[in-house]
Amino acid sequence: MSMRAASECRGGNACGILRFYGKETAMLRIGCHLSSSKGYLAMGKEAVKIGANTFQFFTRNPRGGKAKELDISDIEAYLEFAQENGIARILAHAPYTLNACAKDPDLRQFAYDTMCDDLRRLQYIPEAMYNFHPGSHVKQGVEQGIFYICDLLNRIHAQSGQTTVLLETMAGKGTELGRNFEELSMIIDRVEDKSRLGVCLDTCHVFDGGYDIVHSLDKVLEEFDQTIGLHRLKAVHLNDSKHGLDSHKDRHEKIGEGQIGLETFVKIVTHPKLRELPFYLETPNDLAGYQREIALLREKAEGERI
Ligand code: FE
Ligand code: FE
Ligand code: ZN
Predict the structure, then answer these.
(1) d(C-alpha 250, C-alpha 16), whole Å
(2) In terms of CB atoms within 10 Å, which of 75, 82, 108, 289 comes out highest?
(3) Closest ligand to 131 CA?
(4) Which of 15-29, 101-115, 144-158 has the lowest mean pLDDT?
(5) CA 209 – ligand 1 centroid, Å
(6) 250 is catalytic
(7) Which one of 33, 93, 179, 275 is the catalytic residue?
(8) Could you tell me the distance, in angstroms and rounded to a whole number, from the CA of residue 306 to the centre of ligand 3?
(9) In this predicted model, what pLDDT tens digit does every residue of 249-296 receive, in sequence order?
(10) Residue 113's domain is classified under what CATH number?
């Protein structure tokens, strides 16, 4: 065990087993969003090909719709491949068109049915987490929106297995909920089983939402810790932003080509309170572009992580 790595690992979250393995501690857990159209094993192989050791995927067509039939033999082959190749902590993403706090009860029911079905299917991938956008209250007001989201989460928890569900931090476009740490904390407060609930921090979204991670990353993390608790932070979406601080626009940009800038991303992936978390790129890229961003972040970061 590397004493230095262990003594440095004082982040409140996810510092479990990894810290006991010097080599793994130095290794960034990073991947990108991949297409799930060819199944799990295909995603695993694609991840390895581009230097990733985790990945994110949509559970079904991102606009909703029916999921493909579960292919158990593909899942078994994937799980073996993942173990052999050190892939772990993959993140499933719910369709982004779901609105858990829609005014129309049919739309809320659709969000509930889809999420329940996703979580039932994810029980076959025990280590996966499930990320979703809390929703947009569309003139109903924050209170009513949060009521619906918590009601849905409580009913889902009663129905589903052990998968950890993550609320994503949102940019605050329109009437999006989760636009600040307070709103996420209000949701978490009212969910009965908090043991299966976490947060995924999207760098573009928090920056667009007014959190200055470029100049005051430590202050933002401090605020997160005081409002939500850093132990709830389970994953990070790494996206640069086309628009400036507090713009509420949500337009992702390639790493280093937006308003956040490469230096901040290096700070994020090496930060003692963040570096053990899994990082997922959702930048506007093809696979070759993702491969370059992963290589760049590894090169910049891994020297500083040991
Ligand atoms: Fe998202
Ligand atoms: Fe995101
Ligand atoms: Zn976004």
Answers:
(1) 33
(2) 82
(3) 1
(4) 15-29
(5) 14
(6) yes
(7) 93
(8) 31
(9) 999 999 999 999 999 999 999 999 999 999 999 999 999 999 999 999
(10) 3.20.20.150
Q: How many domains in the chain?
A: 1
Q: What is the DSSP letter of 19?
A: G
| Ligand 2 center from residue 9 Cα (angstroms) | 26
- 285 near 254, Cβ under 8 Å? yes
Domain that holds residue 171: 3-305
Check if 248 is active-site. no
In the reported structure, the alpha carbon of residue 210 is separated from the centroid of ligand 3 by a whole-number distance in angstroms of 14
Range with the poorest average pLDDT among 10-19, 46-55, 230-239: 10-19
The number of residues in the chain equals: 306
State the CB neighbour count (10 A cutoff) for residue 98. Answer: 24
Q: Which two tokens stand for residue 76?
A: 């078994």
Q: Which residues contact 53 (CB under 8 A, 6 or more apart)?
A: 27, 28, 29, 30, 31, 47, 85, 86, 87, 88
Query: How far is 105 from 119, CA to CA, in rounded Å?
Result: 21
Active site includes 215?
Answer: no
